[in-house]
Prior knowledge:
By secondary structure, this protein is of the alpha+beta class. It is 59% helix and 14% strand. The protein has helices at 2-9, 14-26, 31-38, 42-54; strands at residues 59-63, 66-70. It has a two-stranded antiparallel ribbon. A hairpin with a 2-residue loop joins β1 (59-63) and β2. It starts with a helix and ends with a strand.
Amino acid sequence: xxxLNILSKIGLHSIESKIYLTLLDHGESSISEIxxxxxxTRAEVYRFLPHVLEIGLLLEHVVGRRKYYSA
Length: 71
């Protein structure tokens, strides 16, 4: 909860914060894994993940046809 407050103060939406904290906790993950671990829908992850990538908090790694993300 403390981290969610800090991340909101730097301008992250609560869902973006959940995605970021989930990846910090679980390491490299696919969209489906992020959704499962963060208790979000895949649609929410697809909607909010691009902004977190854009500001440089996440990295995208492509393996074959799959994309994985890490913090």
